[in-house]
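Re: the request from the purification team.
They wanted to know what the chain is likely to look like in 3D before they choose a buffer screen. I agreed to run a prediction and write the result into the notebook, where they can find it.
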Amino acid sequence: MPPGAQAILEAQLFEVLNDSGYERDDATAPAPSAYFADLVVGDRPPPCSQEGEMKPGLGGTAEVRVNGEDFWVELPEEEFDATAVREVWVCLRGDTGTHSSLFWRGPGERFGEPRCLHVPFHPGPHWQVVRFQVAGHPHWNGTVRQLRFDPFNGTISPGAGGELRWLRRVE
């Protein structure tokens, strides 16, 4: 691996490596994250679609149950320059869906298909990190005001779902 690559990967995958028992450099700190559990305040979830529910889960996760084909959760508004972010990574696991989706909007815009990426999701009991390579998207530019994450899309089973751990913007 090129010099520094291991430290970058260890910072981004800190919890996954730790939880899975992999050795890592103790000097490496976890990368800053938006933890989905932090979005759920008491019994009040963040803005979500009516196609499911999100509530606190075990071990600092957020638990999701879907009851329709389009469950999504909006992250808090936080403006950032799109050119500073190459990828968005999300750590999750679940038992339904065939893909995950990431939507973004700029100031004065609505979420919509032109500003969206879909990546494969493989249901199972294992934690996985889905990578949205946003830097290559023609509409990933200017100021991003807000992100929306659709964890379990595609073919879903009503009543199924999973857990969301974190979302990270990778520079």
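For the purification team: Helices lie at 5-12, 14-19, 36-39.
Please add any questions underneath this entry.
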